[in-house]
Amino acid sequence: xxxxxxxxxxxxxxxxxxxxxxxxxxxxxxxxHLSARIPGPDDHFLINPMGVLxxxxxxxxxxxxxxxxxxxxxxxxTINPAGYTIHSAIHIGRKDAGCVMHTHxxxxxxxxxxxxxxxxxxxMALAVIANTxxxxxxxxxxxxxERARLIADLKDFNILIFSDGFEIFxxxxxxxxxxxxxxxxxxxxxxxxxxxxxxxxxxxR
Length: 205
Prior knowledge:
seven-stranded mixed β-sheet, about 15% strand, globular
């Protein structure tokens, strides 16, 4: 498979991101997905194939697509169609989205299923709340028409909350991991406070 150095570096970085997501316990077997835009004039991005665990993914496993869904890799593997819908929307709507993660973690689901969403209860939450938006969950994202609604909800946010988890993106992988780490510190703290305090936080009188 011929590719230039820019694409190969993007592949190596994204494969490493999959391994880190698995290391931190943020993977969900085969049900979530990460992608990375290949720098350059073409709207091409890489995404994980179906049937490969995050801990197994290598740089060569990743599948290259354009935003219209054309598969540009010479492979017999397929991709998750819902993953394509979501990630292509992000890459179309935000040219600065160098890398994108969709996760279904316990912390993410904890905040995503709360009526009031992410709250400014910790300094970790404060670090990301201004960059957080919301997208109504429409079921598995098989309908390409949902892309327009996703793009409309993106605005200038770097984080979108669905009721099944988070969509987080940034220009660089290290910034993406910082945001995801902050959420995974702040949200378990909030949920524990709610369970201990009967749904509220004690205020100083």
